[in-house]
Specification:
heterodimer, A: mainly alpha, 69% helix, B: Rna Polymerase Sigma Factor, Chain: A
């Protein structure tokens, strides 16, 4: 089994869901079985999964806009584009 | 709308303005900077319009330009904030970190089931709101690593911090994000 520190290093340096399957499988097994670091790293993976899914929703424009350009900004942008 | 209309800059603000602003704001967490970045992206888009080949929808083409503008803003902002190298030393010096690379063997469990929440459309609005609250170096590091997928070396060079400090900053960002999600998702 890979060491706790190797899992920590991999999760610090990479987004879990972008790692190739052959790197994810030993990490997955470690996280599920390790009593020392499993709970902590599971939460890191959960958070990375959240960001991963968020980016997918963002990609397709599936998130209701909560922030809108202000009217001032719109006027400024329009006048700068007209120049 | 035909191709000509799609590539007409006069329609960009109405068609893509809010989408691009939302994209920039969650990465910069600063209204004025996000608005400026969108404006600069539109202007750069107008200049580059002759080179637009139509293979990518205009929205994503503009978003690609905006991504560079966002990074330029983060680069500029990171030079204005000095990072305390000793921050997080209590975590880095702890036995658990040195032995296992973690700050805590028993982090507080999630107050909700994240896998279930990720299936709810409304959750992503909460997630967006919470990511938008990560400030300064924490927000910059989180954006570059988690949203943009930069390497540790690239981020450390850009933010002028050491890898261990980056680890602490990202740990704190995730902790704050988790706490915000729990407070806001459970109250919806």
């Amino acid at each position: 089994m890979i060491a706790c520190k190797q899992v920590a290093k991999a999760l610090a340096d990479h987004r879990y869901y972008e790692l190739p399957w052959w790197r994810r499988i030993p990490m997955f097994a470690h996280i599920k079985l390790c009593v020392m670091c499993g709970k902590y790293h599971q939460q890191v993976v959960d958070m990375q999964k959240g960001v991963h899914d968020y980016l997918e929703h963002e990609e397709i424009g599936d998130i209701e806009p909560q922030m809108h350009l202000s009217d001032d900004a719109k006027s400024r942008i329009v006048s700068s584009m007209m120049k | 709308m035909n191709d000509k209309e799609l590539t007409n800059p006069e329609t960009w603000l109405d068609e893509h303005g809010d989408y691009l602003f939302q994209f920039a704001f969650v990465r910069l967490r600063n209204r004025a900077a996000a608005e400026d970045a969108v404006q600069e992206a539109f202007l750069a888009g107008i200049k580059a319009l002759e080179r637009y080949d139509g293979k990518t929808p205009v929205r994503y083409w503009l978003r690609g330009i905006l991504r560079h503008k966002v990074v330029d803003y983060i680069r500029k902002a990171s030079r204005e904030v000095a990072v305390d190298d000793t921050e997080g030393s209590e975590i880095l010096d702890s036995l658990k970190f040195k032995a296992f690379g973690i700050p805590s063997q028993h982090p507080p469990p999630w107050k909700f089931d994240p896998k279930h929440a990720y299936e709810q459309k409304e959750f992503w609005e909460v997630f967006y709101g919470c990511m938008s609250k990560l400030k300064d170096t924490m927000g910059q590091a989180f954006t570059l690593r988690e949203l943009e997928g930069w390497s540790t070396d690239e981020i450390c060079k850009e933010l002028n911090i050491k890898p261990n400090n980056l680890w602490v900053v990202l740990h704190r960002a995730r902790t704050q994000l988790k706490s915000c999600l729990e407070d806001n998702w459970l109250s919806t």
